[in-house]
């Protein structure tokens, strides 16, 4: 860890979730994303091509710590999601119900739910105390605009790739409140940033 106190630290300790408690009407929402140093969120449409071993560990730690995972259907299709363990719920925002090659497997699992509508309504029906938001950029933008993200865990990959791939947030521009930087870590050229909504502190 580089900030707030230089030290060697495990992923589990750096991303400890004891501060994540359910809000009065919805779960605590953690956005988990990776981008290149110049802002790209995928290579050939796949975000997994940006990551390394530590980023994968961070992703899985957050993913597994959630009571539910909220994600857009395009991300599910591109990253070929598999069913979650029975104690978790996968909530997919989709207008068509097309979840890609694993559609039938995901729906047959019994803990995959396809939803549509406004995110302000959707989050009120999310179960548990912690929700991990995993993209894509349009869904992220809707959640940010509605002030429904409590924490942002962002990995910066040591890559510059140019092109026109999506950013973390895509949609209508708007001004948003500042965020508090909770930690900065690094490993093998990757930088790991964690932000909390400014009123939440660290």
From TrEMBL:
<dbReference type="GO" id="GO:0009231">
    <property type="term" value="P:riboflavin biosynthetic process"/>
</dbReference>
<feature type="domain" description="Bacterial bifunctional deaminase-reductase C-terminal">
    <location>
        <begin position="27"/>
        <end position="188"/>
    </location>
</feature>
<keyword id="KW-0560">Oxidoreductase</keyword>
<keyword id="KW-0521">NADP</keyword>
<dbReference type="GO" id="GO:0008703">
    <property type="term" value="F:5-amino-6-(5-phosphoribosylamino)uracil reductase activity"/>
</dbReference>
<comment type="pathway">
    <text>Cofactor biosynthesis; riboflavin biosynthesis.</text>
</comment>
<protein>
    <submittedName>
        <fullName>Unannotated protein</fullName>
    </submittedName>
</protein>
<dbReference type="InterPro" id="IPR002734">
    <property type="entry name" value="RibDG_C"/>
</dbReference>
<dbReference type="Pfam" id="PF01872">
    <property type="entry name" value="RibD_C"/>
</dbReference>
<dbReference type="InterPro" id="IPR024072">
    <property type="entry name" value="DHFR-like_dom_sf"/>
</dbReference>
<dbReference type="InterPro" id="IPR050765">
    <property type="entry name" value="Riboflavin_Biosynth_HTPR"/>
</dbReference>
